[in-house]
Amino acid sequence: MAKLIFAISLIGLTGCATSMATKTLRNMAIAGAAGAVIGSQQPAYKSTQAALFAGIAASLVGAGTLLLLDQESRDLTKENERLRLELDAAFEPKAEAATPGTMNAKVPAKYQNLISPGEWRVYQIDEWVEDGENRMIHQDKVMELIPPSLRPFAKPTRPKGKNP
Fold first, then answer.
1. Are 46 and 106 found together in one domain?
2. Which terminus of the chain has fewer Cβ atoms in its 10 Å neighbourhood, N or C?
3. Which pLDDT band holds residue 99 (cuts at 50, 70, 90)?
4. Using the 8-state DSSP alphabet, how is residue 153 labeled?
5. Measured distance CA(83)–CA(67) in Å, rounded
């Protein structure tokens, strides 16, 4: 009798499952039926063993289905990350030009870690700024200047091959 119930449950529940909730419930029902069949095979306390095995099997398979077979959630996470990157790229200014602050002059190797040479960058933006009650100004470029500076607590590097 238990095998017949298991076979009917298996046939009825292995149909097309379209959502994650349906898949989880289907897998839990199949595992519960399988657990009931296995539990009813025990010689003593057949109904108790059947219920115990059915509950354990259904809960384990339900948790496993949610953790392992949730492709829809993984796809949504990937799409969310892709859209976040696109949104960040849309609002981040695009660098148009940049150069090191030393204007291509060479800093001696001994002093390179003592100097932060600075640099400048030009970014392309597309922004409207309110200038009074009836006036808007369109801004399209931003220039950033990072001045050169000294690093007072850095030690000069020794040229390779020379010992004091």
1. no
2. C
3. low
4. T
5. 24
Question: Residue 98: in which H helix or E strand, if any?
Answer: strand 94-100
Domain count of the chain? 2
Domain of 112, in residue numbers = 93-150
Residue 60 and residue 11 in one domain: yes
Report the relative pairing of strands 119-130 and 94-100 from DSSP bridges.
antiparallel
Give domain status of residue 157, yes or no.
no
pLDDT value at residue 36: 76
Contact predicate 154/135, CB 8 Å: no
* Secondary element (H or E) of residue 123: strand 119-130
Helices (H) and strands (E) in the chain, counts: 4, 5
CB 100 within 8 A of CB 116: no
111 and 139 both lie in a single domain: yes
Show the DSSP H helices in 42-123 as ranges.
46-68, 71-91
Which pTM value belongs to this model? 0.34
Of 98, 99, 100, whose CA–CA distance to 112 is shortest?
Answer: 100
94-100 sheet: strands from edge to edge: 94-100, 119-130, 136-146
DSSP state of 152: T
Identify residue 49 by its one-letter amino acid code.
Answer: Q
Give the integer Cα–Cα distance in Å for 58 and 64. Answer: 10
Residue 87 domain flag: no
